[in-house]
Amino acid sequence: MRISSRVIGGVVVAALLTQLTACGSIFFPDRRGQIDGKIDPMIAVLDAVGLLFYVIPGLIAFGVDFATGAIYFPPGKTAQIAPEKLREAIGADGKVDNSKLQAILESELGRSFPLNDPRLIQHKGSVQQLAMYGLIPAA
């Protein structure tokens, strides 16, 4: 009987300690220091699970994650590609070949983009924008 109470006590102490340190701060320490942003649902759900089982530690987990900013997604990252490399995707008629553009983006950025998606909204650029990148309008 004494061993089982020690095991149960150890499990309860371990569970309380993990909830007191907050999930987002443990899983994503690089997110600390953010002020605002979009809330990561995975961290919010993990904090809510702590709230369901242990009310006080769950509230502390939410408080710590909000106070440190670990509950927010990291800010958007940007990437740039030299205009000279993008010229390969422009055809002789001045239209952009989506398959060539997708291949360039995948090779340069290491990510795939759904350029063939029918929901994709394409905006036309102005002559000034093309001149800014050193491109000559052709059409």
Describe the structure.
It is a single chain. By secondary structure, this protein is mainly alpha-helical. The protein has 2 domains: 67 residues, no CATH class; 50 residues, no CATH class. The chain contains 7 helices and no strands. Helix 1 packs parallel to helix 4 and helix 3 packs antiparallel against helix 4. The longest helix is centred in the first third of the chain and has 19 residues. 14% of the residues are buried. The mean pLDDT is 77. It comes from Pseudomonas versuta. Keywords: Membrane, Transmembrane, Transmembrane helix. This is Polyribonucleotide nucleotidyltransferase.
List the keywords.
139 residues; mainly alpha; 2 domains; 53% helix; 0% strand
Count of alpha/pi helices: 7
Distance between the ends: 85 Å
- Assign the structural class, choosing from mainly alpha, mainly beta, alpha/beta, alpha+beta, or little secondary structure: mainly alpha
As a percent range, the share of helical residues equals: 40-55%
Instruction: From the alpha carbons, calculate the radius of gyration and give it in angstroms.
Output: 25 Å
How many runs of DSSP E, i.e. beta strands? 0
Strand content: under 5%
Question: Overall 3D geometry?
Answer: elongated
**Biggest beta-sheet profile:** none
Mean pLDDT: 77
Keywords: Membrane, Transmembrane, Transmembrane helix
Protein name: Polyribonucleotide nucleotidyltransferase
